[in-house]
Amino acid sequence: MSVGHYENFPVASLLLPAPLREPVEIIYRFARGADDIADEGDDPADVRLRKLGVYREQLAAPVDPLFHDVAKLIAQQGLPLQLFIDLLDAFSQDVTKKRYENFSTVLDYCRRSANPVGRLLLHLFKRTTDSDLRRSDAICTSLQLINFWQDVDVDYTRDRRVYLPQDEMARFGVSERHLQERICDSAWRNLLAFQTKRTWELMLEGAPLGKSLPGRVGLEIRATIQGGLRILEKIERAGFDVFRRRPTLKAFDWPLLLLKAV
Predict the structure, then answer these.
(1) Alpha-helical regions (H) of 40-165
(2) Do 111 and 221 share a structural domain?
């Protein structure tokens, strides 16, 4: 997973209440550091996995300052340790797994790579009802999927990694030749249209969470949702051609997103 996913979270932004910014920043540093081990640099797979193993060991017996911060945060806020372990499991999977046979396997990856972040935030917010957690999972999975669709070309070019479900590629008549040669034909557009529509619907399933959370916390979630939807809109407006230009949020997008969030 490219941590580009996290750029769709306005992480530790000024929208958050001040007491929550440092805890969120610690969670972000943990996730970003582990993700960089999985995706950045030239280390072979066995070295990456060994480094991620050290991350797991330090969750239990912290040595580095980051892990002391994480341990303190877990103790103070009552955060589930398993959510940090789930993130590490997803990053380790990224080292070895490059294809996903169906959408269920993609969702299982999102359950560990993205959903723990939202759940950790809800624990910080002290909002962990079943409905809150379910809506958070929908938002976080949607954000992860958005990152997959905007980074189709980046993931394939850099790591030969394909998050598009293999069975759905076959159903729409898309092969890896589309990725190799950056072909944006009707088959490709139909596949991406299907993925973005499903992702949009999933985001809307989670959207009520932003209205139910109070104050600046709710505003933060609503802005995050609007950011994700804006990227999906840009993918569609580009005719689903994510090869020529990666759809991203620009400075001029944020005033509109904040207006919609308010």
Answers:
(1) 45-60, 65-77, 81-96, 103-113, 115-125, 130-150, 152-159
(2) yes
Report the alpha-carbon distance of residue 178 to residue 11 in Å, rounded. Answer: 34
Give the range of the structural domain holding residue 52, as residue numbers without chain letter: 13-96
How would you write the pLDDT of the chain (262 residues) with one tens digit per residue? Answer: 333 444 444 444 556 778 888 999 999 999 999 999 998 888 999 999 999 999 999 999 999 999 999 999 999 999 999 999 999 999 999 999 999 999 999 999 999 999 999 999 999 999 999 999 999 999 999 999 999 999 999 999 999 999 999 999 999 999 999 999 999 999 999 999 999 999 999 999 999 999 998 887 888 889 889 999 999 999 999 999 999 988 887 776 766 666 666 6
Shared domain for 17 and 105, answered yes or no, is no
Residues 6+ apart with CB under 8 A from 85: 56, 59
Domain count, the chain: 2
